[in-house]
Amino acid sequence: MFTDPELAQVGRTEQELKKQNIKYEAVKANYADYGRTITDGKTTGFVKVLVSPFGKIYGVTAIGESASEIIHEYILAMHKKIRLHDIMLMQHSFPTVALLNKRVSEIWMMKKMENPRLQKIMQFLFRTF
């Protein structure tokens, strides 16, 4: 069944993770914040990834233009145990709606960089190398 906007989901939901007491982070990229979807006039939607603190992908919900297509990257990632930071390092074509997958991973990684301990480690590495 197809909907407008499109809806795609894979893996666990937030309710399931809460019920199982699994620690997770929800990371979301909105269509309204991305140039391609703004240009296309398709600003309704988001990609939300539920991920462990170390990048294991538990579940993904995508709502919006091409949601049924961009979900495939996460289906493969979950099946092959690819972590969210690996998606960030992968080349994505620009400007495509699928680039939102990379944006989600960048948002997640930037939140990690707010950790003072990690900042000190990074400062040390940059000064050393």
Question: Would you kindly provide a written description of the structure presented here, covering whatever features stand out?
Answer:
With 129 residues, the protein is an alpha+beta fold. The chain has one domain (7-128): FAD/NAD-linked reductase, C-terminal dimerisation domain (Enolase-like, domain 1). The chain is 44% helix and 19% strand. The chain contains 6 helices and 4 strands. The chain has a 4-stranded antiparallel beta sheet, covered by helices on one side. The protein starts with 6 loop residues before the first strand and ends with a helix.
Question: In short, what is this structure?
Answer:
It is built from six helices and four strands.
CATH architecture: 2-Layer Sandwich
What is the 3D form?
globular
User: How would you state the average pLDDT, rounded?
Assistant: 93
Write down the Rg: 16 Å
Question: Can you count the helices?
Answer: 6
Please give the number of β-strands.
4
**Strands ordered across the widest β-sheet:** 1-4-3-2
* Main sheet makeup: 4 strands, antiparallel
* Strand/helix succession: EHEHEEHHHH
Uncertain runs are none
Q: What's the helical proportion of residues?
A: 40-55%
Coarse structural class = alpha+beta
Estimate the strand proportion: 15-25%
Topology, element by element:
Elements lengths: L6 E5 L2 H6 L5 E6 L4 H5 L6 E6 L5 E7 L3 H13 L4 H6 L9 H14 L3 H13 L1
Antiparallel strand pairs: 1-4, 2-3, 3-4
List keywords for this structure.
single chain; 129 residues; alpha+beta; Enolase-like, domain 1; four-stranded antiparallel sheet; 6 helices; globular
